[in-house]
Structure prediction request, 1033 residues.
Amino acid sequence: MADTKQAQKLRAYTRILQTIVIIGFLVMFGRIFHLQILDYETYSPMSMQNSLRMEIVNPARGLILDRKGTIIVENQPIYSITITPARFNMASLPKLAEFLRIEEEIVLERILEAQSYSWHRTSRLFTEVPFEVFSTIQENIWQLPGIGHQIESKRHYPTELRASHLLGYLREASLEEYQSSDRIRLGDKIGKSGIERIYEEYLRGDVGTEYIRVNAYGQALGTYDDGSLNIEPVKGSDLITTIDAEVQQLAEKLMENKRGGLVAIDPQTGGILALVSSPQYDLTKLAGRMDASYWRDLNTSPDRPLFNRAVSNRQPPGSTFKPFMGLVGLHMDLITPQTQIYNPGYYFRGRRYGDLADPGNYNLERAISRSSNTYFFWMMDRIATRGHLNTWSRLIKDFGMGPLNNIDLPSERSGIIPDSTYMNRTFGERRWAIGDLMSLGVGQGMVSVSPLQMAVAVSSIANGGYRIQPHIVSAVREPHGEIRYTNPVLERIEWIREDHLDVVKKGMEGALVEGGARFYGNIPDIQVAGKTGTAQNPHGENHGWFIAYAPADDPQIAIAVLTENSGFGSISATPIASLVMEQYLTGEINRQHVYDYVLNFQPRIRTLEVVESD
Amino acid sequence: MLKVIDRKDFSWSVVFIWVALTGIGLVAIYSATLGEVSQFLPAHIQGNFSRQILWISISLVALIAIQFTSPRTFQGGAYILYAICIILAIITVFVGIEVGGGRRWLSIFGFRLQVSEFLKLATVLAVANYLTHKRNMSVGNFKTALTTVMMILIPVAIIVMQNDTGTALVLLALIPVVLFWSGLPYGISLLIISPALIGYFSVIDILFGVIAALLITIAIFFLQKTKWLTVSSVLLGLVVVVGTEVALEQILQPHQRARVEAFVNPTLDPQGSGWNVLQAKTAIGSGGLYGKGFLEGTQTQLRFLPEQWTDFIYCVIGEEFGFVGSSLVLLLYAGLFLRLLHMAGNHKHPFAQLVIVGVTFLYFAHFIINVGSATAVLPIMGVPLPFVSYGGSAFLANSLMLAICLNLYLNRRSFSIYR
Prediction:
């Protein structure tokens, strides 16, 4: 009986232990059922995410070409090594230093710097490392936890052009820019000035995505599923500009060590051939890893190199204003081509307005070529007296002086061509009189323009009375090769008459024969038409102007040059303009002495306040 | 002496399960060390697969050889083996090969032996032998129970010194099982295991801990109907719940606490302590019904799993063979355990019963802790899965234990107390 009881007990024990085993089994079974069947939808994507890394593939930014197809802006890859300090193991420091070919202490210093910035955020350890270093690190990245690598690109300028104000630089997008566009990611570099900024949308392209298999160390193991999920980046469009690289380069060279602006333009189309603001800055120093001290210098320099003097400067045009005064006077019937005005050496209206031209009788042609002030004071007197200031202002603005010309550059500024509203605002209602308007007739006083505006204005004379639309980009070449042309309009200025133009043109041609431009303005075998000017500067040395076009009978280039604080335009701006035109028209420079003269030009320091005229 | 060996008493089903688990283990070890992942592994890990085959061969020879020995050998040699293993284990603590912060391996004739694995076997035999002579345990035989506990606690302490908490926990599980089988009243048995249960639930949530303590107390009351036992259950429950909280806040080392926190809430710090838990769950969960296929598991092949050839091998199976594969493994184990317990229940000799029950629950503890860790039911404790995980000593020791169980059952008619 005891035996049976023992057996029963044994059976009970066995049952209890078997029950425990079954419970254990059921718990685990339930658990895997839960994980693998019920939660499969949760964990499957998690394992995908784990082993796949979506990488943004940045598109190549569009190239910028000159009018002959020379590449003036391209891209260059830069290789960077990154670090996430929290994941970095100091034991691998020697190995890292060895791969980087940099001394351990220096690497350590950079790591500590990165640590002090953030333990968990990825920062660049070394940028612009050589490709061999980059690829060694890439291969051995699994031995270097916390170390990463990335390829970025920077703008590269293969020619000797600087064209800093024309092309512009890139910088990291600001928070607002990032928030306002869904195409910009934080840390992206976007165009901040020049055509890089205006055509940002075209140059930028579309980012692609690449799915890469990664292991637990973050080591990339190639594309996922042969790249079936990848989206190729779309390259940015190329910009074909109207710039002539050779002319631009010469213009930059000639403007070196001077302050001012130069705009050379094709008067028939409005395409900018060269645009220089001097002093320039070095775009290469702002590409890629930015030279911080250089950037600081640019922003604090008294020369304001970031200021675009070619399109934003406001200076009185001086005597270069006279041809336009002539056309306006003819149209307003104040004068005829035959009208003769006697110049006794001054014009009197309440006071004497000086005139340095030889005394004698002047018709319009002679007044322009010899730059007599009296003729134009006389005309301005009539305009002011008869209350035609607003008509005058409107007609002058038709040339492109005053209003914006909507060139494809940022920071273009309008000039000032006063009308009664402006005068009222400046002086107060009826607080201004004829005396305040007289000097406008010779391009002094309140009238102020930029070199761009003068280039646009002189183009109207050169092309027979058409208002051009100045532009730098003539076409956008899309990634698949399709070229889309920009559509600059050419607008006839209705009131300009051919016979009136002829008179003014003759006067401008004469300026190269008997006027101030005759010393440095003439190009061998090519007839040039131009006008010098000197803008009075109450704050210091006067500014020199020259506007011109050539050849006179078939204008292919129009130009406006402003050299600040360098005295007479005839000796400062004229030689620069004429060399630029010579280069464009003949492809070379034959007047070495003029070239040397410009390079060595030192603005004279004048002690005497000389009244306008040259 | 009449020797009756019935060939029918050789449990082929156990051998079949042994073969099946070993085979699954080999497939999983191959995938975990020689798949695409091998390029990210050091060379010695890549040798694991062939080493495991060597150990399996040795184990197979041992398993067959043991069938031809007398069951009395085990009983007679139990204490000697126990003593030798204890000494070797102590030596290991001082001169063992240090790997990952613990000295667990002893180098003998070029073989690296993990003495603690054999210590488990020795402890089972020794305890079984001791209890065989002290039958009919009751509350009155407090001294016997205490001696038994001490016999188990000594190796546990040594293994803890080897910094192998997982194995120590496994061995600890032996205490309630052998005491229970030897006649410890149900209520007291339940009382003994109650701290583990209450502690587990307290870690998850203090409320769960309190509920567990309450339920266990009620169960004990109905089982035993003794006042002092019920009172002590209440007190013990209270101590465990409070103790767990204090341990979590005060006593545990930061890394241990992090591990426990990661278990309770792995998403709290997915890059830190929760990483392993999350990766293990992700591996198993993403396996789905049929798995990603042999050598196709991304978690496995891209090195997202830690120790995937030993402690996390269940994740490899779960990921590459899915619910089908992982539940097959569970079924094989359940079958093995039930069969072994059946063998114990049908044996007449208490030594054999105790050995088989002890061995079964050593396996069971391994199984629960390993699969529990991999599926995030338990905090991560590094314990291998018997017969499946890589590990020569463990495989040999586990196979020896199985061989002894087979032998004992094979000889169940001759091996009797009435000889």
